[in-house]
């Protein structure tokens, strides 16, 4: 995805199981962040940092959306556990991850696999 490209219309299901579309945010500034997995140390720190500054971001007109391939149920537990005030979207097929170019080959401990890069 390049600057100025339109984002996909269907973004995924939120932590309540509702379909979220990009047109739901027409004319709004979005912060869309992709993360690998709920309840992992790095992803939790990232989400909590965004949570801690969410009021300030909203005051400046931004809406935050987190996207990972985790399930709706996992997102619901994650959002509840850490009092996350923003939308978490489930992308189990990685279609949205791929459209943004964040689904890439990763390497850890000599093993290569596909995953979300930050």
Q: Can you describe this structure?
A:
β6 (103-108) and β7 (111-116) form a beta hairpin. The two termini are 14 Å apart. The chain is an alpha/beta fold and 118 residues long. The model has no long low-confidence stretch (mean pLDDT 95). The protein contains four helices and seven strands, in the order βββααβαβαββ. The chain has a single domain (10-116), classed as Glutaredoxin (3-Layer(aba) Sandwich). It is globular and about 45 Å long. The strands form three sheets. A three-stranded parallel sheet has the order 3-4-5. It has a two-stranded antiparallel ribbon with strand order 1-2. The protein has a two-stranded antiparallel sheet with strand order 6-7. It has helices at 41-52, 54-59, 72-81, 95-100, and strands spanning 10-13, 19-21, 29-34, 62-68, 87-90, 103-108, 111-116.
Give the gist of this structure:
The chain has four helices and seven strands; from the N terminus they run βββααβαβαββ. By secondary structure, the chain is of the alpha/beta class.
Low-confidence stretches: none
Structural class: alpha/beta
Mean pLDDT value: 95
* Termini separation: 14 Å
The percentage of residues in β strands lies in 25-35%
Radius of gyration: 14 Å
CATH class (first level) name: Alpha Beta
List the total number of helices: 4
The largest β sheet comes out as:
3 strands, parallel
CATH homologous group name = Glutaredoxin
Can you count the beta strands? 7
Supply the number of structural domains: 1
Tell me the CATH architecture: 3-Layer(aba) Sandwich
Instruction: Output the CATH topology.
Output: Glutaredoxin
Question: How much helicity do the residues have?
Answer: 25-40%
Write out the strand line-up for the largest beta sheet, numbering strands in chain order: 3-4-5
What is the general shape? globular
Please write the string of helix (H) and strand (E) elements: EEEHHEHEHEE
């Amino acid at each position: 995805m390049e600057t100025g490209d339109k984002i996909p219309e269907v973004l995924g299901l939120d932590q309540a199981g509702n379909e979220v579309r990009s047109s739901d945010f027409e004319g709004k500034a979005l912060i869309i962040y992709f993360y690998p997995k709920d309840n992992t140390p790095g992803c939790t720190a990232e989400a909590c940092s965004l949570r801690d500054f969410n009021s300030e971001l909203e005051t400046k007109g931004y809406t935050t959306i987190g996207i990972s391939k985790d399930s709706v149920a996992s997102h619901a537990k994650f959002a509840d556990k850490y009092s996350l005030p923003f939308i978490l979207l489930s992308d189990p097929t990685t279609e949205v991850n791929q459209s943004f170019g964040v689904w890439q080959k990763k390497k850890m401990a000599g093993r290569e696999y596909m995953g979300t890069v930050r």
